[in-house]
Each structure stands twice: as C-alpha cells, then as structure tokens.
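tool=predict chain=A
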Amino acid sequence: MPLTSPRYRMLAGALFCLLVVVVLAVVYRADVRELDSIDNGMGSGPQGWTYRHQATQQFLMLVAVVFGTVPMTVYTVLTAGLLAFRRHVRAAVWTVGVMAGASLTTYVLKGELRRHRPVWQDPVTTLTSFSFPSGHATEIGAAAGVVIVLTLLLVRRRGLRRVLYAVALGLALLVGLDRILLGVHHASDVMAGWSVGGFWVFTGLVVYPPGRRSRPREDFSTPVPTTKQLAVVLNPVKVEDADAFRAMLERSAAAGGWGAPTWYTTTIEDPGRSMAEAAAIAGAELVVVCGGDGTVRTVCAELAGTGVSVGVVPAGTGNLLARNLGIPLYLQAAVDVALHGQDRAIDLVEVSGDGLPAGEHFMVMAGMGLDAAVMEGANEQIKARVGWLAYVVSGVRNMMYPAVRVDVRLDGGEWTRHRARTVLIGNVGYLQAGMPLLPDAAIDDGVLDVVLLHPSRFLSWIPLAVRVLRKGRRTDDLVNRMTGRTVSLRAHADTPRQLDGDPIGAGRELHAVCVHGTLLVRVPR
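tool=predict ok
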C-alpha cells in the first residue's frame, strides 16, 4: 500500500494528534514555566474582558451547558440511532466508538495529570475538577470530526457539504474559545482536548472505517459462456470528480474479473439513448449507468428486452429507482452491486400522450398536477446545492396548486371522473425519505398503481400526510387508489406533467402501459 494512500494519511493524522497531546502533557509535568506564561498570557485578557461584559457571560454559560457532557452524550445516541435506522450500521458503531474513546481518554488523562484550573483575581465562574485536557474541547473536537466524516460519506452536494464543514469547525472553535473566555481552562488544555478528539477520529478511520465495506464476491455460476464485457454510460454533470469515479470503477472491475470498461458520456442533446444502443450492439453483457433518474430512465428504456443487465449507480437528486431496489447511494457500494449483484427482472412503463414523442417510458412514477408543478418549480441552482430539499421549497410554494378535473380509465374500461390536485401513476411505492405513497406497488408485479390526492383546504394536508405515513388503504375523495395494467388520464385543461421527476410540458392526456419483466437490473444479493 503506497504511503500516500488514505489509510496512511489517516494514520499520520492520528500520530500527529497524539504527538501534540504527549508534548503538552510532558511539558506540563516537567513544570516548564514557559507553558504557564503562555497560558496566562493567552487567558488573562479574554477572561478579564468576559468579566466586564454580563451579556457575553450569559451567552458563554449557555454554550457551556449546550455542549456539556450529558448533552453531547444525548446528541451521540440520537445520531447513532438515526444512522442505524437508516441502515448505516457501521457509521453508527464508528460514531459511538469515536465519542466514547475520546471521553474515556479525557477521563483517564485528567486523573493521571491532575492539573488544576486557572486562578484569576476576578473569576467569571469556578470549577473544582481537573483541567487537562478540556472535556468540552475533546468532545466538540471529536464531534466536529464525526460530522465532517459523515458529511463526506453521506452528503453528495458540494455546496451543502461546505456549509456543514464550516458549521462543524465553527462550533469546535466556539466551544474552545468559550472555555478560555470563561477562564475555566488554559489554552493548552483546549489544544490538548481538540487533539484527543482528532486522534480518535483518525484512529477510528484506520481501525473501523464507517463506510459500507466493499466486498467483491464471485459471480453466480452460469451455463452460458460470458466474456465479462462491460460498458459504462456516465452523466458527467452528476459526478463531482469524473476522473476519480472512472479510476475507482476501473479498479473495481479489474478486481472482479471484468474486462476494461468501454466509456460513453451523455450530452444535453442525448441523455443516454444512443450510448446504450452502442453498448448493446458492441456486445456488452453489463451496462453500468451513473447519473440521475432521467439518465437511468433513458438507458433502461433502450436496453429493455435486450437481455443486457443494467447496473444503476445513483448520482442524482432523487435516485428513486435505486432507493426502491435497495441499491446503496454510496458510489463505491453501488458499483459493487452493479458488478457483483444479481439480476432482477423488473417492469418498464410505456407512456404516450399529446405532445409526447413515440417511445417514451418511465421507471418510477409519472404524474399530472401538483407533483409536476413542484418538479417544474425546483430551481436548478438550489438543486445543485442542497439536492432534494429544492423540491421541498418548491412544494411549499405550490402546496395549494388548483385542483383539476381528470378522467381515469383502467384496462380499457369505463372512464371515471374525479377532482384532484395531483394524480400519480406508480411503478414503485416509495418517495423521498421512505414516504410510502403507494405502499402496495411493486416494480415487478406487472401492475400499475394510481393515487389521486385532493386536499380541499390547506389543513387537509395534515390528515392526508397521516394516512400516507400510516399506509392506510381506505379510499375516498382525499386519497383515492386504483390499480391496472394500463392507465389513461384525461385532464379537462392543460396540466403540468412529469416522468420520473423530469417535466415533460403541460398537456391533457397521459397513457401508461406496464411492460412486465422486460428489464434486467442488478440488485443486492
């Protein structure tokens, strides 16, 4: 393993933090007067300023309480519980381990070194416990490192990541300054505390990396000879570092016995159709598509019925197909599933309607009304920065989108008339954050599920949300559900429409036909 590898860099970081703690502890035990002189020089001015400003004292005391040992323990438990609930078990265990290790180290060092608190002529507040290292600084230092690592691991958007990094580092600096300004710690205590926290973050990354482990496995045996020919369709706009992604995928492919991948890049004019066609003609046995729902939909539609497997690497805002198939959102883990997972035959949905070109399909959901208006209203710049939260902003603005009269026909039967703010045709059941909008929908059952939502007043959204989250089956004017192999919608006025989250323009008709089991997609074993 080269010395520049991430593992060695983490080890170097841990050793550096350990060195800082050891040097400060040795200097203190050797009773080096220069350390006391530096600490007193850095602490007397800030502590005296705090003593003269009552409002500042109150704020700093609040900071001390909010980031004390008990609240930090609560924050850790809640974070670990949420991670475990979202099936990030390794990250949850890593978080608890880092925070517990930092706290235990601080307890041991304080008992061994027994350094007394600084003494001031006019103290703001006094504490009787030992001083080195600062417990507050240790815990906030470890917590800031945990936030940075989890952000790097779980948050895709560069702008949002930068905000979270800044918040984490800002809070670490605030709590450290809080201890000095209140006069309860020496500056060296705070520095040692930060270093102890950093040591455990780096050590945790070396000993027990929090990301899902990459475990290439042997492929299933097959009586059909294979050439292990691989193609990749990449939407470069959706990947933060395309070169790094290429290198990672090529390493994983080589380790799994696949041939060197053939790369295809989508364009604005062609979101993947000709690339998928070229890959199939060239004899690819597996096509890995990396992009958002629109890119995935286009590639899947082109490869449906060809027998070529599709590996989905989600890199968009919604990633609803991946979420409903259990494909992880980590790029490395998704690549592992694509290369070593098992094939699952799923349904594709053919779509037609006024103004739509021939051959349109969707994989996840199509809709008319409010949901399409939300998709149209999501600002692209906001999406690039905060991801799916852009849809929340657009949803709030369009919450009372006017209801439309719409006729529905299932399996060629009679038309039925309804009023609804939105109508959704679903091939899957779950939206963002695991919202079970169509809880009975399955992507391989050969049936489409339809839901009509009509909250007549603003407050009607509350019982609607309760019924959706509780997966209630009751149907009425508020929530109406239907199923059929073919679904036709006919609005009485031009209405916004969307396919898999992509607006397709206003129109009055939408016809969907489920094509059962026509596409092979790689899913976790």
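The first helix runs from residue 6 to 29. Residues 218 and 319 are 27 Å apart (CA to CA).
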